[in-house]
Amino acid sequence: MADSGAYRVGRKPGSWPAPTTAAIDRFFAAIRKDGEQLEGSEFERGTFANVSCKEVLLKQCRFPDCVFLSCYFRKCEMVGASFIGCNFLVCDFPKVTVQSCDFKHSHFEDCSIPFAEMEHALPREPNLREELAHDLAIASDIRGCGADGRRYRLAAIQAREEHVYAAIVGNSEWYTRHYSGLRKVKALGQLVASRVNGLIWGHGEQWESLAPPGQFSFPYPLRRSAGSSYHRWLLL
To answer: Which residues neighbour 162 within 8 Å (Cβ) at sequence distance 6 or greater?
Structure first.
């Protein structure tokens, strides 16, 4: 994990704001909000360190570009909340509830939210959904949540296939502009390779179930270290 002190640079310590007041570039540490209802609160580029949100209702709150360090979200209800571009580092989410929330461009390190809660909060755009699902797959595996990690990996693969298929057929103006000629041919190769991998190896999951305990599962497509290239992980 990156030095937590880096997330305090340019952010002044502040008291918790009133519901109608936006807090910008603030640092909040060692605060307990347990059992409270926060509705319509807005925090922009804020850092939250060791903040407890046990049994808190976060309704229609906005947290663009915020950082959460060692925060506690037990039985927290997130309803219509926006966490675009947020970093969650070593947080806990036991029995959290997620409804109609936005986690685009967010990053999870040494913490994850159960797939059942995040499934419908994953971004609609396939490239963004792939990125977040891939990130949560790694975080889930690190936390020992293998079942969630597998479901996130498969969600990332499905999103990747949707992305390259859209590139092949050019089903929007954006894909038409960004994928033509050799890039479209490359996308076709990636889609075919992914489908073949799924049919033969189950994207590594079938091989993993057959491999002896303690040995590597499938050697390449679905496992990566935190420092390796993201596109090498899935571009088969």
So the answer is: 126
> What are the distances in angstroms from CA 196 to CA 13, 16, 193, 202?
54, 53, 5, 9
Spell out the domains of the chain, with CATH numbers in brackets: 1-111 (2.160.20.80), 147-236 (no CATH)
**How large is the angle between the packed helices 126-142 and 146-169, nearest 10 degrees?**
160
**Which tens digit of pLDDT belongs to each residue from 67-118?**
999 999 999 999 999 999 999 999 999 999 999 999 999 999 999 999 999 9
| Contact of 28 with 16, CB cutoff 8 Å | yes
* pTM score of the predicted model: 0.76
Token output for 120 = 């419908």
- Per-residue burial over 114-134, b if 16 or more Cβ lie within 10 Å, else e, is bbebbeebbbeebebbbbbbb
List all residues 6 or more positions away from 69 whose beta carbon is below 8 Å from its beta carbon: 4, 7, 47, 48, 49, 50, 89, 90, 91
